[in-house]
Every structure is written in structure tokens, then in C-alpha cells.
Design brief:
Blueprint (H helix, E strand, L loop, with lengths): L10 E4 L15 H6 L1 H7 L3 E4 L3 E2 L11 E5 L6 H13 L3 E6 L9 H8 L11 E3 L18 E4 L2 E7 L14 H16 L4 E4 L26 H6 L3 H16 L2 E4 L9 H5 L7 E3 L21 H15 L4 E4 L9 H5 L7 H13 L3 E5 L20 H12 L4 H9 L4 H4 L30 H5 L5 H13 L4 H6 L1 E5 L6 E7 L4 E7 L5 E4 L6 E5 L16 E4 L4 E5 L1
Parallel strand pairs: 1-2, 1-13, 2-5, 5-9, 9-10, 10-11, 11-12, 12-13
Antiparallel strand pairs: 3-4, 6-8, 7-8, 14-15, 15-16, 16-20, 17-19, 18-20
Helix pairs in contact: 5-7, 11-16, 12-13
Bound molecules: 1-O-alpha-D-glucopyranosyl-D-fructose (TEU) and calcium ion.
Calcium ion binds next to loops.
């Protein structure tokens, strides 16, 4: 694996709508982000990914783009964005934006023209078909519920394809003109000084053609899109072309949002000559998922969590770098998902953070993770904003759950958990806005907020700062960034332990993923306690015995130099 400038960085995802509002409209904006660049620098961030700020009706919060070349006025102006890029550059922060090209918005010019003339040039930008005898071309279920076909506005005998929401018509990648327009747009942004892109939902660009049905898997008679993804062949041509025409020319940094790639394809995605620089590791995020829907989610145990992370560590090996996450804007808060509620505290939060930073790969924080933000509470269904959650709520009701049960079930997984405004302070609306926030602030903001953590040396925030600093510390950098991953004691219950090993150094990471203390005996006394999440155990003990026979408290994590 060739070394790259970005390997040593820590990355951070901003969900602009919920980051910081500066003009009282209750919606986060680019000026808010600019004002917090120093904060991100202080946290040790070197790469920032902005979720979409392009013009959009916000049906899916910006993942439905109506103009790829402009900033939505709700987020600011193109001048604001240019200023953000320039100010970030001054601080050695590389900015990447979201590349959403599986689909656009139904309010995009292309789609409007397609509706005007389905047989013309722009009709071929989408997948438009005839409705024959009242039947749609195939029985796939959209990710956000219902079928993937929708009657084409103005043409009741025709329909168009949308794998996501009906306001997100899929772009036809088979059409070379579409690809040319997309590449032109990508290069235009890279020319502007963007470091690269996070690439949305990209596995979906290749469809199985001609359209075909698969056996239905729910009472609605439809089938999961998963079926067609397994059958689809030929995505490599598209991804290779995009890399060669765009990313390679500008030496761009790219991170793919890739679910469900085929095992044999993995090296093509993130090896030295891969389609992307890196891709997210979603293996833990997918744990417990059920074909039936969120209401049927299976619990995630510490052992399952470990096994998922270790699987990915082994798989990436020397091939390339995964981007490691514990959450993002599509997931509940990682601390609420992976730690039992009764054990959710600063120590357990720091334990998860330690693991994320000590696995091989690029650590990707999601806004608010660094202060230990938790899932929010939903008292009534009308507090749900997210289209995905609303659909899952409906699915749960249809499956026979009571309204109360359904709400409880979807609350665990709701994407809104991650989308509540950033908790800057204990002031009204958590200091996010002095207007009315677009989404209700998590009621726990007086307990969990940045302001109180900045001044507290033992806070979750200050612990994250230690982790980002460790990653660039000349004493450990080489081992943490490039050291081999070697799993330990996988037969043990509720224990996540491994070595990171470079030519000159071995670090041992042990996380006691349970509330009970546990004893661990090493073969040799370790040399140095590099970091622990326990407040009163920060110094390396003098006695050899204490450095050989360890007692780890509940949720204690240690990084030891051997
Ligand atoms: O997500 C792609 C995706 O596959 C999601 O449907 C994901 O499985 C789901 O959100 C989990 O709950 C990307 C974006 O990250 C997401 O925010 C968008 O809604 C989606 O694409 C459509 O653009
Ligand atoms: Ca605003």
C-alpha cells in the first residue's frame, strides 16, 4: 500500500443543517461552519466532509439535488462556500463535499425537461418506461418504502425509476451523455479547490437490465433492492471511468459510501489503484438488521461488535484503508446503539472512541460524537422528520405493532437521532440558533454540551482531543497509522483486544466491554501506559507486577506500549 497524505488525518463529517445557525432561521449554514473552523482545528481535524449544501427542495435533506452548481440559499451563497474553502485551507483542513449522482431531484432541470418530452434528450437521462396493462416494469421496493416506479408527471401511461424517494429520480448511467455531464460537474468542483468527495449510494448506479421481478419478501408483493444489486454486473466500467476522468486528474481524495459490494470486488474499490481512496466500514452499523424492517432489529452484543470490526480489519489488511465510523447522519448515535443504556456514561463512550481510533484506517467523526451526543427521544410520531423513519414507522404499524410500540421500535434506529442540532452550550436551543430549530434539540443538552466540556479536562471532548493528538504524535504515529492489526483473545466474552505492530513498536489495545471488572495477565510487563479512559489510572505503575497482571474496570480501555 502506497502512503498517502490523508492516511494520518482525522476526518469529520458536518451535517450543515444541524451544525450552527447564524441568521436566525433555525437552519445551520455555511457561515456557521466558517466560524467553527478554529474549533475543528483545536479538535485535531484535517479533513471535513460536508453533507450536501447544493440547491435542493430538501425532501431528503439535500440528498435530492436540483442544481449541482449552486449553493442552496438556506445554507448561504457560493461566496460563503469559497470563503469556507479558503479559510479551511489556511488551517490545513481539506474539504470534501457530497457527490450525489445516483439520482438528482425531481426539481432538477433535467427531470423537468424529461417530463416535457420523455422521448427527447433528457428523457434518456432517466429510466422512463411505459406502464403496460397497469403494470410497472418490475417489483423492486424503494429504500424509503413503496415501489421504485412512479407515474411520470404529465404522462399517466409512463413511469420513472427511483430507488430512493419519489423526489429522487435515478440518473441513467448507461447513457454516456449523463456520465459526461456528471464528470464535467465533478471536475468543475475539483477545479474550485475542493479536495474531493464523499460518494453517495454509489453501488446503486448499476441496474440489472432488462427489468425483472424477484420473489417478493413482504406482504406488499415487492422485493428488496438487494436482489438486483447481487445480480448487477459491470459497475467497474463506470467507476473506473469516473476515477480516470475526474479523481485521478486532480489527485482527489474520495470516500465511497459502499454497502453490499461483492467480496471479489473489494480490492478494486480501495487498493492503490482503486476507484476510491477509501470507503466506509459499515459492518458494525449493519448488525442486527432484519429484512422485515427496523421494528425487527436484533440486539447488538459486544462480541458481535468486535467480530464485525475484526472482520473488516482483516479484510482491509494491506489492501487499503477503510474509513472507520461509529455513526453518521443515517445512523442512530453509536454510543446509544452499541452500549447498553444502563452503562452509557463518559467512560463507555471513551472506550468506543479508543477502539475507533486504534483500529487501522481513517477515523471519521460525525458532528457531536466528540461530545458524546446520544440518541434523542420521540414522544409523538409528529416529532419524526426523516422520510426513512416515517416509512419504517408505517411498516411497523402494518406488521401489527401498536402505535406506541412502533414509535419505540423506530426511535432506536431513526436517522433523526444523529440529526438533532449540535449541542454547543446550555443556552436555549443548545446555542445552535436564536430562532426556532428546524428539528427539536435533544432535551439532554443541558447535561451534554460542548461549553461545559471544553473547560473539563476529563470530558469526552478532551479525550477525543487526546486521541487525535496521539494519531499525529511522532512517538506513535507510524504504528497507529500503518502498524499491522493482530487480534487477541477472540474467544473471550465482552473483550476487544488487539495489537498494532510496526517495525519498531508494538501497541496493545484492550477494551473491557462490560460493566464488571476483569483480570488480565500478560506474558511480559508492558513498558508504558500510553492512554486510558479511566480518570485515576493515567500513570504507568512503577512495579512490574502491576504492569503484568492488570485489573481493568468496567468499560476501561487501555493503550499499552509493549
Ligand atoms: O444513503 C444511502 C443508503 O443506502 C441509505 O438508504 C441508508 O441505507 C439508510 O439511510 C440507512 O438508514 C445515502 C445518504 O447517506 C442518505 O442520507 C440518503 O438518504 C441516501 O443516500 C439517498 O441519497
Ligand atoms: Ca441559517
Amino acid at each position: 500500500m502506497k502512503k498517502k497524505w490523508w492516511h494520518e488525518k482525522t476526518a469529520y463529517q458536518i451535517y450543515p443543517k444541524s451544525f450552527l445557525d447564524t441568521n436566525h432561521d433555525g437552519i445551520g449554514d455555511l457561515r456557521g461552519i466558517i466560524s467553527k473552523l478554529d474549533y475543528l482545528k483545536e479538535l485535531g481535524i484535517g479533513i471535513v466532509w460536508l453533507s450536501p449544501v447544493y440547491c435542493s427542495p430538501l425532501a431528503d435533506q439535500g440528498y435530492d439535488i436540483s442544481d449541482y452548481y449552486n449553493v442552496d440559499p438556506r445554507f448561504g451563497t457560493m461566496e460563503d462556500l469559497e470563503e469556507l474553502l479558503a479559510e479551511a485551507k489556511k488551517r490545513d483542513i481539506h474539504v470534501v463535499m457530497d457527490l450525489v449522482v445516483n439520482h438528482c431531484s425531481d426539481e432538477h432541470e433535467w427531470f423537468k425537461k424529461a417530463c416535457e418530452d420523455p422521448d427527447g434528450k433528457y428523457g434518456r437521462y432517466f429510466f422512463i418506461e411505459d406502464i403496460k396493462d397497469g403494470k410497472y416494469p418490475c417489483n423492486w421496493r424503494s429504500y424509503f418504502g413503496g415501489g421504485v416506479w412512479e407515474p411520470l408527471p404529465g404522462h399517466p401511461d409512463k413511469c420513472y425509476l427511483h430507488l430512493f424517494h419519489k423526489k429522487q429520480p435515478d440518473l441513467n448511467w448507461e447513457n454516456p451523455e449523463v456520465r459526461e455531464d456528471i464528470y464535467k460537474m465533478i471536475c468543475w468542483w475539483l477545479e474550485k479547490g475542493l479536495a474531493g468527495f464523499r460518494i453517495d449510494a454509489i453501488i446503486n448506479i448499476k441496474k440489472v437490465l432488462p427489468w425483472r421481478d424477484y420473489p417478493s419478501d413482504r406482504a406488499d408483493g415487492l422485493c428488496s433492492i438487494q436482489n438486483m444489486l447481487e445480480d448487477a454486473v459491470g459497475i467497474d466500467d463506470f467507476l473506473g471511468e469516473m476515477r480516470d476522468r475526474c479523481f485521478r486528474v486532480y489527485d482527489a481524495f474520495t470516500v465511497g459510501e459502499v454497502f453490499n459490494e461483492k467480496e471479489e470486488d473489494f480490492p478494486n474499490f480501495i487498493s492503490d489503484d482503486g476507484y476510491f481512496s477509501t470507503m466506509f466500514d459499515f459492518r458494525a452499523a449493519c448488525l442486527g438488521a432484519s429484512e422485515k424492517g427496523w421494528y425487527d432489529l436484533k440486539p447488538v452484543t459486544p462480541d458481535l461488535y468486535r467480530d464485525a470490526c475484526f472482520f473488516s480489519q482483516r479484510r482491509a489488511k494491506d489492501i487499503g484503508f477503510y474509513s472507520n465510523i461509529i455513526e453518521n447522519h443515517d445512523e442512530p448515535r453509536g454510543v446509544s446503539r452499541y452500549i447498553p443504556e444502563k452503562d452509557l456514561n463518559d467512560t463507555s463512550k471513551k472506550m468506543l472512541a479508543t477502539l475507533q481510533f486504534m483500529f487501522k484506517g481513517l477515523p471519521f467523526l460525525y458532528q457531536g460524537q466528540e461530545i458524546g451526543m446520544e440518541n434523542t427521544v420521540f414522544e409523538t410520531p409528529d416529532q419524526i422528520d426523516d422520510i426513512n423513519t416515517l416509512d419504517e414507522y408505517k411498516t411497523a404499524l402494518e406488521a401489527g405493532l401498536s402505535a406506541e410500540e412502533a414509535l419505540k421500535a423506530v426511535a432506536r434506529m431513526s436517522r433523526d437521532n444523529a440529526r438533532t442540532p449540535f449541542q454547543w452550550s446550555a443556552a436555549e436551543h443548545a446555542g445552535f440558533t436564536d430562532g426556532t430549530p428546524w428539528l427539536r434539540v435533544n432535551p439532554n443538552y443541558r447535561r451534554i454540551n460542548l461549553e461545559s466540556q471544553i473547560s473539563d479536562p476529563n470530558s469526552v471532548f478532551q479525550y477525543y482531543r487526546k486521541l487525535t493528538a496521539l494519531r499525529t504524535d511522532p512517538l506513535y504515529r507510524d504504528c497507529i497509522v500503518y502498524g499491522d492489526f493482530l487480534p487477541l483473545w477472540e474467544d473471550q466474552h465482552n473483550l476487544v483486544a488487539f495489537l498494532r505492530k510496526s517495525e519498531h513498536q508494538t501497541l496493545m489495545v484492550i477494551a473491557n466491554f462490560q460493566s464488571e471488572a476483569r483480570e488480565i495477565s500478560l506474558d511480559q510487563p508492558y513498558k508504558k501506559l500510553v492512554l486510558t479512559n479511566l480518570l485515576d489510572a493515567a500513570d504507568t505503575p512503577a512495579s512490574e507486577d502491576e504492569r503484568k497482571d492488570l485489573t481493568l474496570q468496567g468499560y476501561q480501555a487501555v493503550i499499552l506500549e509493549l
